[in-house]
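Request: When convenient, would you put together a sequence paired with its structure tokens?
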Amino acid sequence: MTQPLGLTISPRAQTGRSASRRVRKVNQIPAILYGKHTKPQTIAIDAPEFTRLLKTLGGRALIIELSRKDIADKALSFVQEIQRDPITDRFLHVDLQEVKADEKLEINVPISIIGEAYGVKTQGGVLETSTHTLRVRCLPKDLPPVIEIDVSEVKINESLKVANLKLIPGVEFRDAPGQPVVGVLSVEAEEIPTAATPAAGAATPAAGAAGAAAPAAGAAAKPGDAKAAGAAAKPGDAKAAAPAAKPAAKPAAKK
């Protein structure tokens, strides 16, 4: 087992939002420690120390050794959940799960891709990662920080599933054996969505049909129809309309 990282914790008697705010004001993080065989314990963690711890973890699955000033015995745990403020990114709360050295635990472990896939290097494919963590069950001493996956032999249109992964001594994979982890796709497969473009082009004839409707509209404005329209506005009709307007205009002019 990789040497556990150390973290100092302090007991916290008060709970609730007001108590949590007071903890944060003194640059600490409200947290909880729970396990199968112990009651949940409300604790506080020094914020700068926890920040350094996360940088050391670097996204790996590592066991953390907890030290308390009021208790000589140390506890083993791992980070289960971290809550942050979505605006300030400040730590709001941390969940730590306690584990026993002689008892198996279940935890998500990140994967690490090794090598260059044959399907990418030689066949022009594209590497696709379906999952970035795998669920494992093991003793704390057997916990791998990361799960290394060699993709060197993966050809185009092939994939590695959980059942294909190299076995790790003392580690049991808990995900479904048929779950894909990483694979190589052909470029054509990647471009399937763009194949819908001709379908959009298929709408062009419809647009042409709309264009065909334009001449029909133009037919309503043929020269012959213009003459008919002109007949509706003959000079004689205009003269007939003029006298009707003149009497109303003359009195207005005298005023």
The chain has two domains: 5-101, 107-194. The CA atoms of residues 31 and 94 lie 5 Å apart.
